[in-house]
């Protein structure tokens, strides 16, 4: 059976790197755990790091976090669906918001539960995902400040998550200025400018983060050490916190070119054949995962001699060349993972999850 393994020492290494970096710059941060899909064992490892603040986009995951440690600060990191409002108030200490009608419902529910629900208002800064338009911001805050049971603790933005718009000094300076404008206009203190995610970390490393941006929401950098500006790994961090292990279920020498009339496969693809491959053979290994589990493009073989050919629904084909490593049926093949691939694997009931003790 294929399994994802989390390496505790690598996770701790990346956490300490990030925690030191943020403390050096006086920035608060929390770990975004949506990648872990509510896996209790993996969530426990994150909480054991001592972060004290966890972010997620699924209420069930926040409930699990509160069951593990009621004192962990939880943040719901997307505008809440209206039918989830009671549980958002119950399990999220803070939520990110953009809609007045939803905030009214959060207010009513907070009063009903005799709680104060804290909110961060998200601002549209160009990536066109969630966010209040900037020209509407003053009027929006004016109405939110009137709501009982609601405490505004910050403003924030998301960049790079949809259209790939990258953060820069100008955008983040604007974000910090909005905080100052709102504080002066309404005589209210807003503690957090939540303008940082994994994509913003390189600005911090280059000392280019504008003063005033004081809160980060980080997942991909913790679990993969990712530098989204270079598509590489942040120097000093590890990209091996999580790996996939999958077993060889067949291996043999076969032609490199299929024979017969070629049509469209079940994924809608037509095979393209390289002329140089005619008459050649190589060892082809089949492993026990497929597109049901992960898209091949999200896998990186640890053995650089392995080439991923393609996958069907539940089998993935590897070209292992001359098989110089003498792979055989039953051997496990290791893969590094890209974020979106790991997300699919973690959400699959077919993939076992293990922790390297």
TrEMBL record:
The keyword Ion transport does not apply. Its cofactor is pyridoxal 5'-phosphate. InterPro entries: Ala_racemase, Ala_racemase_N, PLP-binding_barrel. GO terms for cellular component: cytosol. It comes from the Bacteria. Keywords: Isomerase, Pyridoxal phosphate. One of its GO terms (molecular function) is pyridoxal phosphate binding. The keyword Transport does not apply. Residues 10-225 form the Alanine racemase N-terminal domain. Coiled coil: none annotated. This is Amino-acid racemase. It comes from Rhodohalobacter mucosus. The lineage of its organism: Bacteria, Pseudomonadati, Balneolota, Balneolia, Balneolales.
């Amino acid at each position: 059976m294929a399994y994802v393994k989390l390496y505790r020492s690598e996770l701790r290494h990346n956490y300490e790197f990030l925690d030191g970096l943020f403390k050096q710059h006086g920035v608060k941060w929390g770990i975004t755990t949506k990648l872990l899909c509510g896996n209790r064992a993996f969530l426990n490892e994150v909480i054991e790091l001592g972060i004290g603040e966890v972010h997620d986009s699924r209420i069930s995951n926040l409930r699990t976090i509160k069951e593990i440690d009621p004192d962990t600060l939880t943040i719901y990191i997307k505008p809440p669906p209206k039918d989830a409002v009671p549980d958002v108030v119950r399990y999220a200490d803070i939520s990110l918001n953009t809609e007045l009608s939803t905030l009214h419902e959060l207010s009513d529910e907070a009063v009903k539960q005799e709680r104060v629900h804290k909110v961060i208002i998200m601002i549209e800064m160009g990536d066109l995902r969630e966010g209040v338009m900037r020209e509407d911001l003053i009027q929006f805050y004016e109405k939110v400040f009137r709501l009982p049971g609601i405490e505004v603790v910050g403003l924030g933005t998301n960049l790079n998550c949809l259209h790939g718009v990258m953060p820069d000094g100008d955008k983040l300076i604007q974000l910090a200025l909005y905080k100052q404008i709102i504080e002066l206009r309404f005589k209210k203190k807003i503690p957090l400018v939540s303008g940082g995610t994994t994509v913003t970390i390189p600005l911090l490393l280059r000392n280019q983060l504008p003063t005033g941006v004081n809160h980060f929401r980080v997942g991909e950098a913790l679990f993969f050490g990712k530098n989204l500006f270079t598509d590489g790994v942040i120097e000093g961090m590890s990209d091996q916190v999580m790996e996939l292990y999958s077993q060889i279920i067949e291996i043999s020498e076969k032609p490199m070119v299929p024979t017969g009339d070629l049509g469209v496969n079940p994924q809608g693809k037509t095979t393209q054949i390289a002329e140089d491959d005619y008459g050649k053979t190589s060892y082809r290994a089949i492993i026990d995962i497929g597109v049901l589990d992960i898209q091949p493009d999200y896998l990186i073989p640890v053995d650089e001699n392995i080439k991923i050919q393609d996958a069907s629904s539940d089998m993935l084909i590897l070209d292992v060349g001359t098989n110089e490593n003498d792979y055989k049926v039953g051997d496990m093949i290791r893969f590094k993972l890209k974020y979106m691939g790991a997300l699919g694997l973690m959400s699959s009931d077919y993939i076992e999850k293990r922790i390297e003790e």
